């Protein structure tokens, strides 16, 4: 799953939007009473609150408006499942992602402090993931739960996780390499589909950024 967090032109073939899971960092969009959402974008707002620069404040406001616009667009899209049948909505979301890329083109987004964490996926165009989310019933009497990315920049590891409550999981391990201040390359290394009393290894394939 390629996450949009690059000041390079993003890979808009398969972008994904994620929030930091359980940590109130960066963007102030509330997802619960005590947790705040973070769209992984190329503009780190965490450093802007203490700035006295009017131009920086204006840029922060612009980024916040763009982020809110993006969150509004993906609301109710069932993590991208519904977007598959709506080319116009997909185009609007891609344009919103591109707008955030332009705003953050000069920022650094690949440091361990910003990127290493557990992220919850909100939206994607990645067909394999959307198939699994939509057809979770094929793996038993279940539906897709959290879809997560666990990133450890220092260890060079990215794990994609799709949960099937109460005990199922699709787990894909990847290696990552920081290649610029705004770009991370990844390569899948292993995959496994697990149920309560069974496990089915799958051949890993694919690379991207």
- Gap from first CA to last CA: 9 Å
Written as H for each helix and E for each strand, in order along the chain, the element string is EEEEHHHEHEEEEEE
- Give a quick account of the main beta sheet: strands, pairing sense, barrel closure: 9 strands, mixed
Which percent range fits the helix content?
Answer: 10-25%
User: Can you tell me the residue ranges where pLDDT is under 50 for at least 5 consecutive residues?
Assistant: 1-10, 23-52
Inertia-based shape? globular
Number of helices: 4
The fraction of residues assigned to DSSP E strands is 25-35%
Radius of gyration: 17 Å
Mean pLDDT: 79
Question: What structural class do the secondary elements suggest?
Answer: alpha+beta
Give the number of DSSP strands.
11
Please, could you describe this protein's structure?
Residues 66-194 form the Plastid lipid-associated protein/fibrillin conserved domain. It comes from Papaver nudicaule. Its main location: plastid. One of its GO terms (cellular component) is plastid. InterPro entries: PAP, PAP/fibrillin_dom. This protein has 209 residues and is α+β, with helices and mostly antiparallel strands. Helices cover 24% and strands 31% of the residues. The chain has four helices and eleven strands, in the order E-E-E-E-H-H-H-E-H-E-E-E-E-E-E. It has helices at 54-74, 87-103, 112-115, 127-134; strands at residues 2-3, 15-20, 29-30, 36-37, 117-124, 147-152, 157-164, 168-180, 183-194, 199-202, 207-208. The strands form two sheets. Strands 1, 2, 5, 6, 7, 8, 9, 10 and 11 form a nine-stranded mixed sheet that branches. The protein has a two-stranded antiparallel sheet with strand order 3-4. Helix 1 (54-74) runs antiparallel to helix 2 (87-103). It is globular and about 55 Å long. The protein starts with a strand and ends with a strand.
């Amino acid at each position: 799953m390629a996450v949009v967090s690059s000041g390079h032109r993003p890979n808009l073939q398969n972008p994904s939007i994620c929030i930091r899971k359980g940590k109130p960092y960066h963007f102030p969009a509330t997802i619960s009473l005590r947790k705040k959402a973070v769209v992984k974008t190329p503009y780190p707002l965490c450093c802007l609150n203490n700035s006295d620069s009017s131009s920086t404040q204006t840029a922060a406001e612009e980024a916040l408006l763009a982020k809110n616009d993006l969150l509004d667009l993906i609301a109710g899209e069932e993590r991208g499942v519904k977007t598959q049948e709506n080319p116009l909505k997909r185009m609007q979301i891609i344009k919103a992602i591109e707008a955030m890329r332009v705003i953050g083109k000069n920022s650094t987004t690949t440091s361990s402090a910003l990127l290493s964490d557990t992220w919850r996926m909100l939206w994607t165009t990645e067909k394999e993931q959307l198939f699994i989310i939509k057809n979770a019933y094929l793996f038993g009497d279940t539906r897709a739960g959290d879809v997560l990315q666990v990133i450890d920049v220092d260890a060079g590891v990215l794990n994609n996780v799709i949960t099937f409550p109460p005990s199922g999981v699709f787990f894909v391990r990847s290696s990552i390499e920081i290649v610029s201040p705004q770009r991370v390359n990844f390569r899948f290394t292993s995959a496994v589909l697990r149920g309560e009393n069974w496990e089915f290894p799958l051949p890993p394939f694919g690379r991207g950024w």
